Amino acid sequence: MSETMDNNGSDDDYEDTVDTPTHETKSGSDDEVIAVLSEEELNELRDKSLALKSEANDRFRDELYDESIELYTKALDTCPPEFGADRAVVHSNRSAAHLHCHRLDEALNDCNEAILLDDHYVKAILRRAQIYRQMGNKLDESLKDYERVLELDTSCAEAKTASNELRHEINERNERLKTEMMSKLKDLGNLVLRPFGLSTDNFKMSQNGETGGYSVNFQNN
What we know:
Blueprint: H1 39-61, H2 65-78, H3 84-100, H4 104-117, H5 122-135, H6 139-152, H7 157-193, E1 203-207, E2 214-218
Antiparallel strand pairs: 1-2
Helix pairs in contact: 1-2, 1-3, 2-3, 3-4, 3-5, 4-5, 5-6, 6-7
């Protein structure tokens, strides 16, 4: 399995400006009802949120991940839901911080929130694919996200490599599960057939090369 690449970094590691998608994003929902604010008041809150995010990014770069998480959380608490793109970036950055602390569930939750706000957010989708793969039991979900990344960015080398590796891993897993299932079915079949002096060895299973289905034929030993 390939190691997680540089996408564990916060989304502002590469530039000081806000990583804002160019297309429209959905507004998030808060637990508390926010009173109607003027445009000036909304922008003031946004500026405070961006300042908190910038401070959080500094902590992230210094590898002070818990401190960065606290500041990202304050940034989200401050940022009005009208600024969905800003909120998506903060969720994605906080996800990166959680991932560095090996908190996969928290990292996944933040990625989900970021993608809900912006379903074209490549960095968040890529990071979620990495998280799913690290979880071990969500290989199919990981592959789906990597394939989505390639739909949005055909040049993403990590997604290409990971997709090929995951298809192989998923096929191996499915074959292993099929073998385990057949073994259990054979044990159950022997239990049922034993009173009749038969066993599963009296039955031959053949796979149809065209359909992939199986047929069972009785044979005397």
